[in-house]
Design brief:
Number of helices of chain B: 11
Helix content of chain B: 25-40%
Oligomer: heterodimer
Strand order of the largest sheet of chain A: 1-2-3
Number of strands of chain B: 13
Structural class of chain B: alpha/beta
Strand content of chain A: 15-25%
Largest interface: A-B, 46 and 51 residues
Largest sheet of chain A: 3 strands, antiparallel
Order of helices and strands of chain B: EHEHEHEHEHHEHEHHEHEEEEEH
Strand content of chain B: 15-25%
Shape of chain B: globular
Strand order of the largest sheet of chain B: 3-2-4-1-5-6-7
Chain lengths: 106, 352
Amino acid sequence: MCGLCGTFGAADHWTDGLGEGTALSPTAERRRRAQIANEVLGLYGLKLTEWANRFTLTGRTGKSAVVDQFGGIWAEAERLTGRACDPLDPAVIEAMEARQRAGSHG
Amino acid sequence: MADAVPHVGLPPVTVNILTGFLGSGKTSLLKRLLTQPDLKDSAVLINEFGEIGIDHFLVEEVDEDVVLLKSGCICCTIRGDLKEALLDLDQRRAAGRVPAFTRLILETTGLADPAPIVATLVADPALRHHFRIGNIVTVVDAVNGARNLDAHPESVRQAAVADRLVLSKTDLADAGTVDLVERRLAALNPAADIHRLDESRTPEASLFLGDIHDASARRSEVARWLASESLEHHHHHHDRPDVNRHDDVRAFLLTAEKPLDWARFGLWLSMLLNRHGTEVLRLKGLLSIRGVDTPVVVQGVQHLIHKPVHLDAWPDGIPGTRIVVIAQGLDPAIVRRSFKAFVDTPAGQKAT
């Protein structure tokens, strides 16, 4: 069991339950979240896809894992890549800042 | 939303963790608190350390529903016993074999890091619907407090995790020493209320009552987190004054003026806690979330985040995200920059 999720299986996670208040269906909301996550996961060569009320996380080599909760993707991401996924890594921060700047022009 | 789901028949029990370094006066405080009518329906669990049974005798006189945990401490070993003790108590309560207590006070060993106890309660599927975490109360004694904070990392972690700090034995130390310890505690944990206690003063039941699960107390509780002057001090001055020499433990504030995208925030925080959970001693946040009408409260201990709860209005009337972080070994400037880089929506992108 993952202490971060505090749950077995697909039970609730703290990241669930607060939608955007829009009319998105649960599936559409998961797709939207996957799209947001992929902005970061792309830095590690990973891709998150909404799949049957869950997510799948896939690496460049095709290795993949099922992730029950949006907040639980990082342990799997590190396992698949063998790398630390650190949001305080200056290179990661710089990449995210560059993405924001690019977004502002797009 | 998001409060613990009660099991059939009985509402969840609020668990208060009472911690503090060896000799700080936890048991004395507990004994005095338990005489108060508001805490009458409390059960007590003690995690005894070593073979010194003093705590046991004192508390047994106070309450007949005492169950002693047999193992010494800390992290992993405590969990099994704690879980068994909690389940046993819960079953006895459900069966009517003990009074239907509504509160459980868990006194830890002086050397315990409270985080594994929180983890046991939050993460265990059998427990988390029957119990919910209330205020964590940490006792620091005025006489030895400064020395313990300097010498024992456990003492710093206990103070950092607290919702309420009790400064005990203030009548046994001179005024300058008491002030100094209090200032150090305020710098270490600006989100906690500090209560001075001496032998002549009756401790307030509010140490345990009025937590974030209590809808009537929630707004004032959050206002208290955010009101701290020392937090503002930390926000503006990274070089800390002499009163705070807790090596690398720092309290700092993350802010955002625009409403956050919940998914971006969740992605960032779960990524941060996955890698740095043991360094984030405490996190308490009031969040403005896009598409959600009411303020959202998020709080956690280390890598464990409680289910978010809502406030009916902004405590100070000012909307905006403010998150208090107490962390060990993390550079506040880097955390702030990372937070901004991850949660700000790229300007050219549609928000939803």
